[in-house]
Amino acid sequence: MSGGSAKPKRRKAAGSALRYDHRPGRSHADEPEQRDASCLGGCAAFLGFLALLVPPAVLAEYRGHALWGGFAPAWPGGAYAFAATVGAVAPLVLLAWVVPLTRMRWKRSKTRAAAWAVASLPGLAAGYLVVGVITSTWRPKRRRDWDGDCYREGGPCWVHVHYPWLWAVGLAACLAVIALLVGLFVRHVRRSSATAPSTAGPADDPTPRSPSGTGDRRPSV
């Protein structure tokens, strides 16, 4: 009686080494290398971003007084005309830099992609000049830093005193050029869509009509 009422024993669970198998062709040794590569890429991108900010800051620090104290007032139309020119050129410079970069296709051809990258460098250099000219009119954030050098001829404080609406003129010129570019782009898209070849087949030629005007159709009885 006791032998028939005994409960069956549970099987022991398999060991962890038997339960999980590593995928073939996958090595854990590659993970640290991938992490190091991503860290290096992030550091390089950060340093490149800092390098982009250095030239405009240097231009604004050492050439700002000469730019707005002598060059801008001598521009045809004065300093306000110079500000309008800078504002109008800013969107064009941005396009000259961005458009070649959008044509890069590394998977198709690395040579052409490198050529497009080189073609964007003039736009990048012009962008440095535009940003440097704009930042040379920025006054220090703290009012206590508006010292004698800031009010010296060509300094940021001097520019705001003699040309208080300089930023408005430059911004208006920039927006006007952007609106013009958008209008030209929309017009180009409409023209290209209107002149696109149709995929439908040619229409059938009309059948000759009979003198009675019924064509090939027979009159109903």
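That was protein one. Protein two is written in the same sequence-then-structure order:
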Amino acid sequence: MKRHQLFLLFVLLTFTKPSLSKTVDIDVLVEDGYFPIIINAQKKQGFAPEFIKILNGAQQEFNFVLKSLPVKRLALSVEKNNFDVLFLMALQWIPLSAQENIKKTEFYTITKNELYTLKENTNEQAYFDDITSLTKVGVLGYSYQFAGFNTDAEFLSEEHQVSLTIDEFNVVKMLLLKRAEVGVLNNIAYQYFKNQNTFNMDLLYKSNVPDAVYKTHFLVNSKSNKITSNKMDEILSLPTAQIHLQKLLDKYGVSSNYTSP
């Protein structure tokens, strides 16, 4: 082989090497009751599937695979460090024993747990000043400030009169059916139901004071050694991702610290 042919072969191998590297699969876990973040996991509809699609379309180094799990299985995966990334969760939702292995992204979204009741019950904020004696409905596995962030179902039922359901769709349903006086509803879920006319949300009266406000990050398992939180932020900052991210955030009414170019 001639010298110039060897040189061309060297250049070809050098610059095509990245394309020959194997894409790394990253499992991204999300709670299947995290409605409407996951609306229909099988049809890949909703904020989370669309977000993951943007991340995969923006780069080729990683293949993000969204996996929705029931709350108990998700908690078990976290406790056993059997995950790569958690989709937009607050660090305080994670057991203290598992937090030491978790790194959060600089990117975060803002979510609120808000208190609602039927307008026929009240049209005054004072109704929510003391909800101790009122029957309440929430989502299994969620933590609530009024209950000291204790997620134990028996404790919530006996000490705080909280009935638990699988998702926020059923929270609204129970309010409308008058099976509870106060419902705890995520602000993103409320906006989605209202925009989609899933329920007549005008029948509900909202407290001016949310139960709690959270910053939800991508939480990266440092033990998995597949990806870092810095790398996640780097991908989120790619121009190929930024083109679509703001539109997605606006579509679902999600507030964040994201700044579009």
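The longest helix spans residues 3-20. Keep this in mind for the problem set.
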